[in-house]
Design brief:
Layout lengths: L1 H22 L6 E4 L3 E3 L3 E8 L6 E7 L3 E9 L5 E6 L6 E9 L2 E13 L6 E5 L4 E3 L4 E6 L6 E7 L2 E3 L7 E3 L2 E4 L8 E9 L6 E4 L3 E6 L6 E9 L2 E9 L7 E7 L2 E8 L3 E8 L6 E8 L4 E3 L3 E3 L5 E12 L5 E12 L3 E7 L2 E7 L5 H4 L1 E4 L8 E9 L8 E2 L3 E3 L9 H28 L30 H16 L1
Parallel strand pairs: 2-8, 10-18
Antiparallel strand pairs: 1-3, 3-6, 4-5, 4-7, 7-8, 9-11, 11-15, 12-13, 12-16, 14-15, 16-17, 16-18, 19-20, 20-23, 21-22, 21-24, 24-25, 24-26, 27-28, 28-31, 29-30, 29-32, 32-33, 32-34
Length: about 475
């Protein structure tokens, strides 16, 4: 409604000015100069001036509804009328200048003064509150102000400005939103609000809030290490997750039943259990739990069986596409024993030793030779003993000779020659079969008689043959003989 009244007022003022100019001695146009945006309680200055008027005039600065604000009479040409006042809540509105010369009036342009409330009391609010959020969920931050108008907002994450909306952040007005949180969204946030009026900008900054993102834990992994204390043996079972947020509750399960539990501010814990040589095998695994997750580790067999039986050493050569040896895999095959210690010998010198109570079996029992050079050729042997018994004897495998066994390289030329020869033999065989089929009906023995046919079937009684059918019968027999020879 106010905007419509201002529009009608502007039209009326312009029409009045035109009529005055057209019908009287006022021949110049009045101009009102001043700010259109001003802070509350600041002082502003308006200036009303008529250019080109040779005589004195009466100047008035008017507000909407023809309310005079200030008046100055008998102003000489070129002397402006100035208005300086303090901005209050009622100062907003439309202003114009009215010039009267000899009873004829002219009006100026209109200035719409807008009162800008300085920003103050900026604070930050989060949803959810407190801002401790699970990975993958959403977060919304609001930059709120107690007072202020004509505002714009700037966001900061870990003291760096969030410049624009992206797949990581969505900015809209006074809010910042994250649809799916990751660990990269964790950290400190604050915002600033400012009066965006082009000049004399005023800014207010909020306090910081710290966003905590609870990262999902990864599936735990269970490993076993044996140790001896005095005359007793113990298993140290380590349950560990590679990543995630703490605290985490870890449980040790024997045969599916809870054996022990620990609440830890770390991603790994250690459980201890007494062990005995020859004890019955039990299955063991661990579980990691948070407020929203429950993950189970790998399953291990907990048994303390001594090393025994023969030990075999297997060799496997690995080739590339050119049939050249690029690696050699040695596998020490143990007949019996749950926690062995394996030593590798190369030409009767200790090369490497592995404790299989700490390393998974698929890595502990294998030795890879990736540098296939004469230096690594020679005699290899693996020796096995119990890792938990220092005085246990070594069980030795046979000695295996490792040497270069490169296969001959098959070139493209060789493949082409073999293919062409095979194709030629196939074509010659096909031509021979075709030639044989076309020449079989005229096949006869050198004596000019038809070869005898023998059959295991019961002989049929002979019947007298008519002379006129004899030639046909002999031709049919020749064809049958031909097919039998094929």
């Amino acid at each position: 409604m106010k905007e419509r009244q201002g529009l009608w007022l502007t039209i009326a003022i312009l029409l009045t000015g035109q009529m005055a100019v057209a019908g009287g001695p006022v021949s110049s146009w009045a101009v009102l100069k001043g700010l259109e945006l001003a802070y509350l309680n600041d002082r502003v200055a308006f200036s009303c001036e008529v250019l080109g008027s040779p005589m004195s005039a009466t100047y008035q600065i008017m507000k909407m509804k023809d309310i005079p604000v200030t008046t100055k009479k008998h102003v000489s040409a070129g002397q402006p009328l100035k208005l300086n006042f303090k901005v209050t809540n009622t100062s907003a509105g439309a202003y114009y200048c009215k010039v009267t010369v000899q009873g004829k009036s002219s009006t100026s342009n209109i200035l719409n003064l807008k009162v800008v409330i300085p920003v103050s009391g900026v604070s930050l609010r989060s949803v959810p509150n407190p801002p401790t959020v699970i990975e993958g969920s959403s977060l919304t931050l609001y930059c709120e102000v107690q007072k202020g108008s004509h505002l714009s907002y700037t966001w900061y994450h870990n003291r760096l400005e969030v410049t624009a909306s992206s797949h990581m952040y969505h900015l809209s007005g006074n809010l910042l939103k994250v649809d799916k949180l990751t660990k990269w969204h964790a950290g400190s946030y604050y915002c600033s609000a400012r009066n965006d009026i082009g000049v004399n900008t005023r800014t207010s900054i909020s306090g910081e809030i710290h966003v905590t993102v609870q990262v999902n834990i990864s599936a735990p992994k269970l490993s076993i290490t044996l140790f001896r204390e005095n005359a007793s043996y113990y298993a140290n079972l380590t349950c560990e997750s590679a990543e995630g947020s703490v605290p985490v509750t870890f449980l040790l399960l024997l045969e599916g039943q809870e054996y022990d539990r620990q609440v830890a501010n770390s991603l790994s814990v250690w459980f201890t259990r007494p062990m005995m040589v020859g004890m019955d095998m039990v299955s063991v695994h661990c579980r990691a739990e948070t407020s929203h997750q429950q993950l189970t580790s790998n399953l291990l067999n907990l048994e303390m069986a001594p090393v025994g039986g023969p030990v075999y050493l297997h060799t496997e050569y690995l080739y590339n596409t050119n049939w050249q040896v690029v690696a050699i895999r040695l596998h020490c095959d143990i007949n019996r024993g749950t926690f062995p210690s394996i030593s590798w010998l190369h030409n009767n010198s200790l090369l490497h030793q592995s404790d299989c109570s700490k390393i998974p079996d698929d890595k502990c029992h294998v030795l890879f030779l990736t540098d296939v050079t004469p230096v690594n050729f020679g005699h290899y042997q693996c020796l096995v003993k119990d890792s938990f018994n220092i005085s246990a004897p070594w069980v030795q495998s046979d000695i295996v000779l490792v040497e270069s066994i490169d296969l001959p390289t098959i070139t493209t030329e060789v493949i082409a020659v073999v293919f062409c020869c095979t194709l030629l033999i196939f074509m010659m065989g096909s031509l021979f079969c075709i030639f044989w089929m076309f020449n079989c009906p005229v096949l006869q023995s050198e004596s000019g008689t038809i070869p005898e046919r023998h059959s295991d079937a019961m002989a049929m009684p002979s019947l007298p043959l008519r002379a006129e059918n004899m030639e046909d019968i002999m031709a049919n027999e020749e064809m049958e003989l031909c097919f039998e020879l094929q």
